[in-house]
Amino acid sequence: MKDMMPNFNLVQPTDLASAISLLTDAGENGWAIAGGHDSLDWFKDRIKRPTTVVDLTGIDSLKGIRETADGGVEIGALTTLTEVENNPIIKEKFGLLSSAASRVASPQIRNKGTIGGNVSQDARCWYYRSGLDCYRAGGNTCYSDTPEGMNREHCLFGASRCVAVSPSDTASALVSLDASMVIQNSSGEKVVAATDFFIGPAIDIENMTILKPGDVLTAIRIPATWAGAEFYFEKVADRNSWDFPLVNIAAAIKMNGSTIEDIRITCGAVECVPKRLNVVEDIVRGSERNEDTANLGAGAAARGAVPLNYNHFKIPLMEGLVRKAIRG
Amino acid sequence: MAEKLLGNNFTPPDVRAKVTGASKYSEDVRVDGMCYVKMLGNPMPSSNVTIVDTSEALAMKGVLGILTENDVPPSPPPGYPILTNKPRQLGQPILAVAAETEAIAAEALEKIKVNYEAQPFSLDPLQSLYPGGPNALDEGNISGGRSIPLGVLKWTARDFAEAGETRLPMGEAPEEWSVGDVEAAFKDAAFIIDEPFVVASSSHQALEPRSTLSYWENGKCFVYGSSQSQSWMMPGLAAMLQIPVEDVVYIAEFCGGGFGAKASPYPTMAIPAYMSKKIGRPCMLRITRAEEYHIGGSRPGFQGQLKVGFDNKGKVTAIDCYIVQSGGPSNGSGDYTAAAEALALVYTPTNMRFRGVPVVTNKPMHISQRGPGQNQIACIMEPFMDRAAKQLGIDRIMIREINAPDHDVVFSDRESTVTSSYIRDALIMGSDKFKWKEKIALSGKRNGNKVIGIGVGQAYHSAGSNGFDGLVTIRPDGKLHIHSGVGNLGTYSYASASRIAAETLGCSWENTVIEHGDSRRGLPWVLAQFGSNTTFTTTRTNFAAANDAKQKLKEIAAMDLGGAADDYEVDNETVFLKSDPSKVMTFAQAATRAIELGGKYDGHEFPDELNAVTKAAMPLVAGLGLCGVAKDNMPKKGTVPALATGYAMIELDTETGKYEILEYTAFVDCGSVIHPQSLEQQVRGGGVMGMGMASTDRMVYDPQNGLCATVDLYHTKPLTILDIPSNLEVGAVNKPDPQSPAGVKGVGEPVMGCAAAAILSAIQDATGHSFNRTPVDPDMIVNAMAGRPQSFKPLQVNI
Q1: CA of A219, closest CA in chain B: separation in Å?
Q2: Please, what are the domains in chain A?
Q3: With an 8 Å Cβ cutoff, are B449 and A316 in contact?
Q4: B298-464+638-785 matches B465-631 in fold
Q5: Do A313 and B785 touch (CB under 8 A)?
Q6: Does domain B465-631 bear CATH number 3.40.50.720?
Q7: What is the pLDDT of residues B203-259, one digit of tens each?
Q8: Which chain A residues touch B799 with a CB distance below 8 Å?
Q9: Cis bond leading into B775, ω under 30°?
Q10: pTM of the model as a whole
Q11: Burial (CB count within 10 angstroms: exposed 0-12, middle 13-18, buried 19+), residue A54
């Protein structure tokens, strides 16, 4: 409603060390900004009020896509989603990520939005984004998980006071590709698996990733493990553009003849983190890739789901997407 | 013979500025000394406010003043106040702060200490009608329609108990009419559908938020606003500002969409004017996107029960319709009664009963949106028609033809008539263009998990009025100036409807200038640019003014060249003696002569029957040239029906609930087509809006705390270019309406409703499921296809 940013100090470093130093000094009052599509909404709504905003877009070392020695690829965190979508190496080897990137937001947003921002974006729960004092905002209630809460877009799994979901399309693909995230801070560099990068409310209710003040996500590495596999990505949203997923699915499948030799399948927007469907993987691994196998896997996809008032449709939707992914 | 203008394409004069970005909307205007105003909105759905302390804000450097309800005239309920300490809606303006910058104003708002005493609130009309249910306003819970004053209405608990959750409770109806013997007709019906329905409230969500700049100069109040209308704004603005209409200067050259919500002056428009008066500075009130959702208006939602009886040939023999209309915290619109009239006209039931109640709620101001009432009911009735066709073994186009109104139709309790009706032609020609017979053969065809659905929809709107004023001037440079008071909401109809004046006067388009968008240009009184009326209404006013100018040209020629006025003809920018065309005066000569003659010829004298707004404009044009000014006194009898049909083919994924619109065709009855390109863009734009009505448009509210989830574009989800077919086919019957001098009717409203109905019809065709609701989201489809219950009750709203 406010649409007017409070004042802050904007710093535009051109090297990573300076950015880390600035963010470290600012601590809880610091904010790293890249494409700005998540950040600026928070600022203009006057809900998040950092005193120091560090604009990372001048740091060239965080941009670009490089093949790695093991046959994988490293993507700078500031690489735009359009570049990820159209990069020939990614398209050839990891088409799953290319497909996922192509469904993020709108073409215009993808031209500015970065893959680092896409995986680091905050929860899209409308109550939280309204500036209410919910658990995720440091308060002591959840407005969504109430007898009358409007929670169509919220989670089926992993509720722990907060019921927000992972809003990222590329995150599901990265988990299925066994990607890892490169994080740098004043102590140096650490590399963590994508599955460990995304965290749910039971671990940290105020953050959706392990990034702490002073941390900068610098790159995403995808190993050669799933290069050239068969992929399936589908996002179901109300609109075909500029919308967050109701559910998305990202599957990587290695075939041996007509048999599923190995599979990774991850579902987005059903839990606070991209939900790796290990059970489905176990069920279908070693089976023929056909309708029966797809139905078998789909039947197990939503086991354990605890729907809220308005989101039980996500159960058949998950099942349908898993069926489609396995069926191919 | 001068060039033929009507029916041919042209480039409206405001297009270039819009395309190049040179156009200045109200928010783009800057004047010397301008400061900024920001509003404090109510953070809950209903509260009683005490402004405790403003001193800290006022002490801030750069803060110029605070405006509260004490500084503005009151607007007792069910009026919508400019500012209030009793806000009855989320986001309703309580006070406003002026500051040197908007950033300072925003910061100052946070320093004002306000106590909010939360009040009971109502978001669901049925909840409010339940015994003991909350009233949205202190004075009551119903208001609106034809003549329903603000008051309290509660139904009995028995009304609700008897209905259960699968039928609309139907208690006392403050609005009721009937024709024929409805009960007897149902007894004789071969097929009856009797089901509850919901049409969601939805925001108008114009792309341009309604920012206003205002200042006072030489006793006049200058207002730069965002509005669909121009002259129509003047009396309302004058009343809000408590000044004579001649002291209002209103400038609104461009408008980034209104869809009904910017048709008339709106309360926030007065805030910068009163602030400017208080602090002595020009004030800009920039409205944010979220504020636009709160104060920008929304379409009234319906909860209803529709019972329709058919004979075995497919004729609708009986309709019994009950509509509970959801309004905002002010006087409700007449959507629900308009819906009933649409049923009565489009389906020509021989027997019909309508009952309705307009309920006020603590949601945004509900005002008419494109196809008010008619489009809502089309979304429900059209799928009913399909079901009847299937049950009775009749083609879905044919059942609509069977029930289509003719020119001599008499409908509703008012025994209304129409000026013309070519909807049967539209059905025949449109279904041919869509290749209905080929497409219907694909209905239900499956390709794996995808299934084809074919849909058809119709919609109607009353689209024309009469009795307003026209004004033209012919200047000494020989150019014709058409003074258009109608506004420019973006449809270009202000320009299309002006061309009849040029054609009547035999003036080339190159030598024609349209004066619009600024009351200082001398603009006549015409109806607001709403309800698709502009094309019909102002074609008549411009024709009347042109004929007045034509007569004066002849009289001047007769004075100077001899003979009688009737001996002269006007064409090719001259007036000449019919028997001897060498006796001729150019427009330039005649204009110069008119100024010399003065009096009625140059606008110093004018008919007393002109409206006060036109009279106030006359001193601005008097003496500029030859003046043609007249009230439209041409006869008009009956409603001017805009009628539209739409046809859709979708491919629906049964496993995800998503569907792709493969093809869409619209075919309309708009009388004669005066501007083909403009018609096409209206039909396409309305079609896309209708597709959104069918699939995404709604307002989501949390019933516990009254907060709204849909206050930005990514939550309200207007459809994008990637959600619609790349080619939207358009056609028109193109037969003249006899009561328009150009044969024209408007058509902007029903082109939305027919598209929405066609998509819903196609979804029903593909899924075999009747949702009886808008919008139909993927979640509803996926639940239906999986055989699961929906998450909501049949009459639940705000989801």
Answers
A1: 29
A2: 66-328 (3.30.465.10)
A3: no
A4: yes
A5: no
A6: no
A7: 999 999 999 999 999 999 999 999 999 999 999 999 999 999 999 999 999 999 999
A8: 150, 152, 310
A9: yes
A10: 0.98
A11: buried
